[in-house]
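Record pair follows.
FIRST:
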Amino acid sequence: MEKNGNPVLPQKFSSFSSSGREEKLRESDRNLSLGNIKLEPYEKKELDLAKNQIKEEDEEGENGDEETKDENASHGEDSNTPAENEPDFATLSEEVDQFLASLTEPEKSVEVPEIPESVIDKFLDVVEKEVQKYENVDERWVPEHDDLPLLPAIGRVLRLSTETEKFCAEPKYAHAMNRAGGILHLSMALLEEEFYLLLLEDPHVDSHRAISFGRNQEPDRCVLPPTSTEGEGESNEPSLPYPSEIIERLQEIATTMISAGYSTECCQIFSIARRNAFESSLLSLGFERPSIDDLVRMAWEPLEGEIATWIKVFKHAMTKGFPLERDLANKVFNNNKSISTEFFQNLVRESVLHLLNFPEAMFMTKCSAEKLFKMLDIYETLKDSEIVIESFFPEEDLKGEEEDPTASYNLDLKSEIASVRSHIGESARAIFCDLERSIKADSAKTPVPGGAVHPLTRYVMNYLKYACEYKNTLEEIFREHHKTSCDDDEKPDKVNNNKNSDNPFAAQLVEVMDLLNSNLDMKSKLYKDLSLSYIFLMNNGRYITQKIKGSEETCALLGETWIRNRSADVRNYHKNYQRETWSRVLNCLRNDGLMVKGSVQKPVLKERFKSFNSMFEEIHRAQSTWVVSDEQLKSELRVSIQAVVVQAYRSFKGRFEQHFSAGRQTEKYIKYSVEDLERHVDELFEGTPASIVKRR
């Protein structure tokens, strides 16, 4: 029987065309030779036809295999491509999942479930081959280019290793468990390296440190993106340094490694990489961690720059650096909050302790007045950080402190910041108190020319003005260290008995002002001209009151009463100046002694005008070189002189001018018109010599 030229097997031998037909034909031949079966002639003929057909098909199959091999070789096809009758990886994965599900089902019998050895072996072969593909080669593992989904496959290997351990007493299960464990270990090495390399995929990379993973070493470290410039309209929320797809892969790898018992390796890689990144961010801001010895010996100008850099770096860490690391850790270890919390808190603790070395070194440097304001900046920075640290270590994370040493470390960090802040406060207070000693030590014996404002007055008042801008901080510092006064040996109870004893800083400020006033009183005695000493006291007194009125903080600390009293002192200096300078001049313009029996004593009148002219010229010559820098005070002095002296001269001249003959006699004794006198008064206190031009 033939169909399309090919013999067709009879129904009796049709099953021979399936798998194993050659063996069945041999069995039929044996049975015939033994006489177990008998065939009709036509059946023998059909059997011969079947044998011939099998032989032809086998030959065709061998030829086809050779052609397939040649074709695959010519096209460069992978020799590992499974045969058509082999199950694909998806099918293998499905069968493995079914087997694993059967192991996790409630036990239906005491018998050990049958293990599909061939399926598991084939599955593990494929996974192992895929993992080994990345060994000892430069090729990076890119999930998008994988022939199979590797991470889910590694997850199945992990489950195989875990679930088969229950029946490890069974040889077949032990074999599967050991095989899966070996492949899992190989897979973890791949994931470790990929985890680190992903962490390096940061926009900014530096090459100072490396982490070794056995197979490869990468000499790179990742860095945080640079801080954005303030005022650019950018959000204060720190943005993560990786795109979302990389963070997703980091999450998957971390979850797989932790599930496989490789949490230590995973956390170590993440910790080292991100610590390096954090340190790089500080370096990018210019902070190079100078040693304590270098800081102690450093001159003030470079040290001032170092302090400004440290403050910038510390604020960056608190407001951007640490929050960024916290958010990143929470994203990567989103299924393991305890791990992300421990990493973040360890990072904060270690980084802050390193950063605190800088202010500790500042505490060791020599106190000097110019350091006060930078010390106060450091103090305020540390004070602000305490609130931020509280948010980094919430109370719920500190529960169980007795059992968890990390909780005590967190509390130690807070106390360490408070301790360093206290030391800085102590230094700031000592520097401020040193201002008293500076005032006492200023005992210069040379008077300031022209009675101008003394440099000590300018220095102290400007210093206090800027210091009072830190009013709240200095009040806090002085309250914290109120038990010791600035000069215990000389005035142990003076500050405490002051009416401002409830505000030690205000009391100290009053003490400084009293010392300054006493010093100025001593310096005023250096002038031989008493009038000039009053000008000196007026100048300095007015400068002090104007500086105080120009600072709300200083006004609030000294109080209105103190300011009124000081203004009254300036008015008294003004009165004393007028009495000392112009009283003798006014005596020349009195009517007393000029009239005898109703007639004017002309010789006495002439002497009065001569004395007035001489005195006024002398005063004008001297006091035009004197200095009154405050325009309002200068105007007040001139107005008061004109109101008293010029007005008296106007009256005296108008009454007695007619007793002189017109011409030379009048010009000889009456040298100044009222207008001349007013003009010459306006030339006083300009700080430059002025000559009197006599009228013709």
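SECOND:
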Amino acid sequence: MQVSSLNEVKIYSLSAGRSLPEWLSDRKKRALQKKDVDIRRRIELIQDFEMPTVSTKIKVSRDGQYIMAAGTYKPRVRCYDTYQLSQKFERCLDSEVVTFEILSDDYSKIVFLQCGRFVEFHSQHGHYYKTRIPKFGRDFSYHYPSCDLYFVGARESNVCDINPVHFLFAMGTAEGKVECWDPRTRNRVGVLDCALSSVTADAEIDGLPSVSALKFDGALNMAVGTTTGQVLLYDLRSSNPLIVKDHHYGLPIKSIQFQHQLDLIISADSRIIKMWNKDTGKIFTSMEPEHDINDVCLYPNSGMLMTANEAPKMNIYYIPVLGPAPKWCSFLDNLTEELEESPESTVYDDYKFVTRKDLENLGLAHLIGSSLLRAYMHGFFMDIRLYHKAKMMANPFAYEEYRREKIRQKIEETRAQRVQLKKLPKVNKELALKLIEEEEEQQVTRKRKQKNLPSLLKDDRFKVMFENPDFQVDEQSEEFRLLNPLVSKISEKRKRKLKILEELEAQEQEEEEEPEGKASDAESSESSDDEKGWVEEVRKQRKLLRQEEKVKRQERFKEDQQTLLKPQFFEIKEGEEFRSFKDSAKKQKLMKKTLGDRLKLEEKLGTLNVSDTTVGSKQATFKLKKSEQQKKQQEAEKQHRQERKTLRRSANHLKSKRGRGRLFR
């Protein structure tokens, strides 16, 4: 149990300490409690009072026996029985719970507003009915006289509440106004401008304050919380707030509760819970949990406070000043009284604890039993001034030794900041420096059992990368800059480091002895800019590339203007004729005409003949146009055939003459 105190108000955190996993067996839990002192001393007021991931809402039934909590993941609701100090049941839901309300005195009637525009009704046995509302709901209130549920949805209102005395319905809007409606006449009866009233002279506000929390107290008082961290207390008879309390964190107010015994208002944002007097606004006490707060629930007529957090465990606080412990955990009063009666012993700064051996070394063993030494455990307490005087007399050179030790430590610290000389290759120096830095980081974070990984610089397979200039990385190329947008900033640091290394190497060559380097502030002076994302850097690189491309185009355009255009001549091959550009224009005109017009033109030229057949259909014959080259080729083939024909005739004539001569012989 953790105890804190502010303004002399003690706050006991009953959820402090380590929690054990649910899947552990009872035997293992008992074994851990025996071994670990923190687990053994922790107080588990309600067993398994937690959610798997996050708890969003927490409420107490009107009879005080049941505590209901909603959370994720998966979306679920859990009911805890305070009389049994354990969980009674758990129900999983289809979607996350925005808020819920317990309509009955116990857990038998519950209404859940879910994020998917669904409203789900549960009875004692489980799910009873489910319906859907037109808009996404943010809050709702139950009107007991008419048994009506009033929902407020997105783009209109954020929160709502019904006065428990005269049942006036109030809702807070996104414009920072509170509208009050009478359910009997269904008309609006008044409007409060809370956004204007929340702005004070010393307040710094970035945007328009919206209403994020609303709570009635009695018939006339109403507290309003804004998204900018202000709480306004109103009397319904006046449009001006009675008091304005600022949390000074600029976070939306999540919950407002009234504590009537001490006239306190308990307001909470996601970071802090503040308790302050509703008449004067003076802070009574406050507490800051470890995790962000989602909801706060004050157990009725007691000093117990419960919170739903952005963590699995739900916190329980007990503040004895606010009231007694609930009857189901009345032992807390006896426990806190015992802690107050027997406070822990403390060791003050003006006393020094020494053992018997320390007294013998200082020569003060004869003081044992006197009033200068107070026996405690295995040693004694003595005045710190007497201790320093005795130590100076026993060892007069202790200060000189202390001074020399401090100087040596300072020198070692400065040596650690010096730039260590590293032998870098001639090619890809930045890549080699990067690999060296990564190896140093791995040596620091690597566990003992892990094996040492081989270095790329010492691997023969990658030896050529740091020797051959053809493998030099071009960091100005478009591919490198787009694939590695964040490397540019890191490379600037490495370039500065390389420059420092080159200067130190030059000094080492000039001097025979190794000079002492100066501390490098290159890395310490510049904080790593991790907040800029990858997308932003890629956009920046693309913008730079477009600018460079634009400059190159302008330079090429200037060069083209400066160069004189010279005419070019083309030679026509043999056997081809030059045709004017008019032929292509005629072809384009002809292609634009319809098929009927082209057929008529072909008939006029004689290349197409259309006639009727005996069966009543049309017959078209056409002649292909031949180019001049095709015509010449056909004429040459015709002449060749004619020459061969004449040759064959002459050969046949000679053969016939020879045959006749032989007959006559």
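COMMENT: The chain has 14 helices and 32 strands.
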